[in-house]
């Protein structure tokens, strides 16, 4: 079986969040379970110079808006599997990866370029695996071309939903420009008088997946369907939930090159050293007996920042530390800064994106907070489990599927979770965690329960292979 994975971001070439982690790791994991895969992703300005790549195609003529866009494609195996990076400077050499008025056009182009490239390199993939709204355009294109282009005749599409909240909505007048003016495609894109790339992906892909079982059910409800729950329900017989994996080559405290000391389930002494260094790095007094609560996240409403804002006073009042790494909405950034000014000996704040620091926080912290409003899968809680950093999460999406409440009677469970989106419920779990932390044996038990889990990509990759087979059937 030959699979082409198409994604707007992929580690180590580019990343703004979990999609990058997933798209970088899945092809490598597919290879390990015997599937021949190729990854196609844009070459951003941010990608350049950072990784080894070579020019593979310097005349990738992409049919675009009635003419030809002269693009290039670079080749790399920096993520451990064959990757093509589409180079189109006017679309991708910019000071950020997303956030432009014409993002829909940038990714519509990327999709056209990716399909042009796959055809150019010769062998048709059996499966084109599309990710999030950025790839809805390719779903529409393949649904049409496979009826008249023999190259694509046997190719089938899988569309993975990583986040229903982002749908790539734009004015329908652009559909003509991108080549989707026909009634069939137009209807697939049409959503509340506008065009939605997510809707096209959901409508026209052969099968659908999302990144946890619980989220697969949640997006069929209005609260998490963002206006498309009816469509997900209609196509539910073709939808599966597959929980993301963790790339333990990147995220394992035993080998992680980003952290100051290594450790594993049998010997956690290195974790204390990581904690010491983390406190020093944030110029906080080194009191190893006090727990560090941490957050590493995009600062958006999705992540439950307002619950953290309401709970922060209780955490500081208990004498614990809080360390936050993140950037995003200004009001949230300002909140963390104010908290730091209020309790400078207990609070450490880094505003921005810092890959290396994310690893150091996972290793040095004691408790990881993810009180998300919604969370399709979530990766940081799984990284935390491996790093012996106990997660406190809200029971939604992938957080609910991967974190089990600690049960002091049976000694089972790997963290703490709460249901209703309420600060008092979150605070209850914070105090429960503080109690558990005060008893070293209990805490060690919770840490070991998490560290012994296997959330590796190989398991998830096997499930994707089953999904691909089912799609081909
Ligand atoms: P989402 O994709 O919704 O942002 P995930 O939990 O799936 O959430 O993945 C987030 C990924 O992005 C993790 O690998 C996390 O470490 C990383 N990340 C988020 N914010 C930052 C930041 N400010 N600096 C470094 N890494 C970050
Ligand atoms: C999205 C979701 C996150 C998920 C990630 C990778 O960004 O918000 O929950 O882990 O995609 O699938």
Secondary structure blueprint with pairings:
Elements: E1 2-6, H1 18-32, E2 36-42, E3 54-64, E4 67-76, E5 83-87, H2 89-92, H3 103-121, E6 127-131, H4 136-145, E7 156-161, E8 169-170, H5 173-178, H6 183-189, E9 190-191, E10 194-196, H7 197-204, E11 207-210, H8 213-218, H9 222-225, H10 229-234, E12 239-241, H11 269-281, E13 292-299, H12 305-317, E14 321-328, H13 330-342, E15 347-351, H14 355-364, E16 367-370, H15 380-386, E17 390-394, H16 397-402, E18 416-418, H17 423-438, H18 440-451, H19 457-472
Parallel strand pairs: 1-2, 1-6, 2-5, 6-7, 7-11, 11-12, 13-14, 13-16, 14-15, 16-17, 17-18
Antiparallel strand pairs: 3-4, 4-5, 8-10, 9-10
Features:
single chain; 473 residues; alpha/beta; Rossmann fold; 2 domains; 9-stranded mixed beta sheet; 6-stranded parallel beta sheet; 19 helices; 18 strands; 40% helix; 20% strand; globular; binds adenosine-5'-diphosphate; binds alpha-D-glucopyranose
